[in-house]
Amino acid sequence: MAERPRHIITLACSVCKDRNYHNAVGKKREKKIELNKFCPKCRKHTLHKETK
Hints:
Elements: E1 6-13, E2 19-26, E3 34-39, E4 44-51
């Protein structure tokens, strides 16, 4: 079975703007990803948004 086209995105903390996480996602999607993740710089769980 063929692999689906995917690309790497970066997740940045919405509080301190630090880029903490990377994730592979499919190319056919409509909205940007927003996840609650732990930010080591803020030392708490914050909203992380997809950036370039």
